[in-house]
Amino acid sequence: MKFSELAIEHLDITKPENIRMLIVEKFCAQSISHSLSKHEEELIATFIRSASTVGVNYEELNELMLLLNQRRIERGFFSFIFEKDKIKLQELKAGVTKFRGYAMLKYGNFKFAFNSLSKCKIRDEVEKKLLPYSRDKSTITKSYHGRPSKTTDINKISKSDTFYTGYISGRRLDDYKEKIKYKRQNKEITEDEHHRLMSQIIKDSDKCQNIIDIALKNADVYLTWDFMDIYIATSMRYKWEYEETFEFISMLFKNKKILRMNLRYFDPTQSKCAERIDKGIVESLMLKRAKCTIYMTQELDTLGKDSELAATLAQGKPVIAYVPEVNLREHTKKIFNYSIEYFIKRYYTLKLEGIWDERKYRPMFGRVDSNYSLSIRKWIEESEKRMQEAVDESFEAEIKRGPQFLTICRLFSLAESYSYSARYSILSRTHPLAIQVHLDTGIANGVLVLRDIKRCSELLLNILTNDMSFTIKHEAEKARQLLISNDINWVAFFEKLKSKKVNSNIYLF
Fold first, then answer.
1. How far is it, in rounded angstroms, from Cα 58 to Cα 72?
2. Whole-model pTM above 0.85?
């Protein structure tokens, strides 16, 4: 773990009042109630001169602590924080910063952390109290590399078949079967067409059942694994969502360093439970066992996925939220191959989000099609009508050959880009679930939001190996403005707490 704090880095501790601030306020988390007397200044100045030339050892630091009317620290705490018997004057700042970083992670409070850790007489005692954050990167990496291989593994379902594991796929086949029967009864299709389409439905139903059987067995395999490191939280309803999730997971775990870690992760595209109660229990168990959750921000955020995010944070575990950053050219090519149903579903969702009607987006939409609002509405209405009338998917190829389809794809790519950018802003700044309190400790735990799969993969590796870098910032005024922006008058609430002498200091990490 690496920590930094600009307020400490810029502190000139060759001045007596500044070294007092470093020790009393930053290290011991106590308030300074009076100015230094002339005699105190002279004694501290003597300490500074000595420390600047020959350094500071454990005993000498404790002399300074007593001089500043603070409690002595034990040798185990000194050893963990400073990692050597004698330190230079400027290394005091690095040690205090290190302590404050661990205090934020493990305790969420500097004073309580100091009172707890400073009493530790041996280093192992400090490390034990700071678990899991105190574990060394090399030790963690070695333990992952030394894991035994899997006794059983899942039977991988291909990307194009993952949709069959969903709870909607079977129902869609039943609906399609009823549609074909209705059209035959009303003589909208011939007997030969009816026979051909029903044969295809039977074939698809058999395939669907085979995939479901594999997914059910895969769920059993996940439950037998000794380790479960990562849980993937998704919302998947439609074929394109299953395929996007499959692609994301495949790319995420391509990192060579991650491959050597022998990680175990729960892939929702490869698993299925027979009943919704089983699904809830199994996924809750996965969340309990996993060290980290990756939250995929997709077209829709569902109750289940948001609950998984909140449950992970409430356990004090990290959540990485991945929000796609849309490359317009690549995304246009990608959705060109999506079903017409995708465009119909997304049109109405994006309309509810206000994307099509947002004033600031209109100029960019207008560059693609000056009359985009009317054009896209008519295209959607016509496509809906043709989809309802169609007996198979052959109508899609005809629509995609039309001169307007490429323009539609470009408009949707723009709309998706704006939608995901807005979701990123909400999740990283204002989403009410983005910060949760660890139920056992009361420590705030926030979501880590990224928009690049490669960076997501690197962050995951850093989290699992305790190779993280943190900066402690002081943003009291920013916090105040954030509180004011909420409907509840939180400022008045905290002022009321302060009037009752309750420590309500807010630290933003």
1. 10
2. no
